[in-house]
Backbone:
C-alpha cells in the first residue's frame, strides 16, 4: 500500500498502484511453486493456473498492509484449533511467521526438536519427518505439506536443520506473514468495494 512506502526524499506510489490504470482489471496473481518456475500475472486471472473455486477474504488496509484474519490451524492429522490469527498477504516471501503458541505446538510434534537461541529458532534432526500444517483462510483450509517446511541446514551443524518454513520462534507481534505456500494460487484484488485476498489450490 502507498501509505507505508518508504521511498525518499519524495514519496512515490507503489509499482502496483502506478500500474493499475493500464491493467485490464486492478489485480495481480502470485503463482509460486516448490522447486519449479512460478509467475506473477498483472491485470487478469489465468483460470488454467488453479483448480476449484476461489475463496475471497476481506482485507483491512488501515495499517498499510493487505491484512486479514485467519481462522485457526491444525498440525498433521490433529484437530483444527479455532484461533484468530492476524495475517498479511506478503507475496515477496514463502516463509511463515507465526505466533509463538502455534510454532511451539508444531515443534512439539517433531521428535528431537528444540529451540536454540544461537540459531534464532528451532533445530531438529534432518531425518525427521515433519507434519503438515493447515491454516484456516476464510472458508478455505490451506494445507502446507511437511516436505515443504524444511528450510536450511543449521549454521555449524550437519545433524540438524534450522527452524523452517514456519519462521521464527518469537514474533514481535502476533501477525502471520503468509503466504503459504509454494503450492497455492493467490491474487490481490481491488475490483470490489474493499480490497480482497483470494486463495486457491494449484
Residues:
Amino acid at each position: 500500500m502507498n501509505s507505508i512506502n518508504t521511498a525518499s526524499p519524495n514519496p512515490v506510489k507503489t509499482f502496483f498502484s502506478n500500474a493499475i490504470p493500464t491493467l485490464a482489471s486492478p489485480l495481480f496473481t502470485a503463482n509460486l511453486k516448490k522447486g519449479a518456475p512460478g509467475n506473477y500475472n498483472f491485470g487478469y486471472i489465468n483460470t488454467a493456473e488453479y483448480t476449484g473455486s476461489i475463496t475471497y477474504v476481506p482485507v483491512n488496509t488501515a495499517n498499510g498492509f493487505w491484512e486479514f484474519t485467519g481462522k485457526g490451524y491444525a498440525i498433521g492429522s490433529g484437530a483444527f484449533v479455532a484461533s484468530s490469527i492476524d495475517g498479511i498477504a506478503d507475496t515477496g516471501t514463502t516463509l511463515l511467521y507465526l505466533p509463538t503458541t502455534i510454532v511451539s505446538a508444531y515443534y512439539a510434534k517433531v521428535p528431537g526438536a528444540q529451540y536454540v537461541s544461537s540459531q534464532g529458532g528451532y533445530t531438529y534432526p534432518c531425518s525427521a519427518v515433519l507434519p503438515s500444517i493447515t491454516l484456516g483462510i476464510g472458508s478455505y483450509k490451506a494445507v502446507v505439506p511437511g516436505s515443504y517446511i524444511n528450510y536450511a541446514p543449521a549454521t555449524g551443524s550437519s545433524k540438524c536443520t534450522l527452524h523452517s518454513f514456519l519462521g521464527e520462534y518469537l514474533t514481535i507481534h502476533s501477525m502471520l506473514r503468509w503466504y503459504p505456500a509454494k503450492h497455492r494460487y493467490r491474487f490481490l484484488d481491488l475490483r470490489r468495494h474493499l480490497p480482497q485476498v483470494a486463495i486457491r489450490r494449484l
